[in-house]
Amino acid sequence: MTTALTRGPQPHQLNDDHQRRRTHPLDALVPDPAGLPAVCDELEFAAILEEMVADEAPRLFAVVQEYGERVDGRIAAWGLAFDDHTEVVSVGRTQRMCLQAPENALGLFRVGSQIRARLVWFNAEAATPAGDDEAA
Predict the structure, then answer these.
(1) CA nearest 87: which of 95, 101, 98?
(2) Which one, out of 7, 30, 64, 71, has a CA that is 20 to 30 A from the CA of 94?
(3) Chain-wide mean pLDDT for the chain?
(4) Where would I find the beta strands (DSSP E) of 20-127?
(5) pLDDT tens column, 32-50
(6) What is the spatial distance between Cα 73 and Cα 82, in angstroms, rounded to a whole number?
(7) Among candidates 97, 93, 121, 122, which has minimal Cα distance to 107?
(8) Cα 114 vs. chain centroid, distance in angstroms?
(9) How many CA atoms lie within 13 A of 106 on its CB side?
């Protein structure tokens, strides 16, 4: 009968030991933070990160195609407006683009003279509350 002592280390144990000793090739480009003090406790750090994300978040918008004079409309693409550029992805995932400004996407979504494109900036307050779409 073999026991864990006579069988030797298990494959998962060897992998764990290897992971602890191994360094990533990109570690040479980043100073090792070991030994540096934390700037604050976890709760305060989480709050700092949350504030940073809120301050630097890109603005969300849709490129909407409008058919005729308010006859019909659809969302053709979603975009993120950063301070220095804009990312746009079509809803069908057939187009992805990096532009200087959100308005630069409009010409790409016009179709002849019947379908115009417009930007609609996301407004969380305009969203239908969950469950309200089924109310009769």
Answers:
(1) 98
(2) 71
(3) 86
(4) 59-67, 72-81, 86-90, 96-99, 115-121
(5) 999 999 999 999 999 999 9
(6) 26
(7) 97
(8) 33
(9) 10
Report whether 64 contacts 76 (CB < 8 A): yes
Name residues whose C-beta falls within 8 Å of residue 28's C-beta, 6 or more positions apart in sequence. none
Confidence (pLDDT) at 114: 94
Quote the CA–CA distance of 81 and 99 in Å, as a whole number.
9
104: helix, strand or coil? helix
Choose among 115, 135, 12: nearest CA to 66. 115
Counting DSSP H helices and E strands in the chain, the numbers are 3, 5
- Say how far apart CA 57 and CA 51 lie, in whole Å: 10
The model's pTM is: 0.69
Q: Where are the alpha helices (DSSP H) in the chain?
A: 4-7, 11-21, 42-56
Q: What is the pLDDT of residue 133?
A: 58
Dihedral in degrees, nearest 10, Cα atoms 35, 40, 44, 48: -70
Tens digit of each residue's pLDDT (9 = 90 or more) over 83-103 = 999 999 999 889 999 999 999
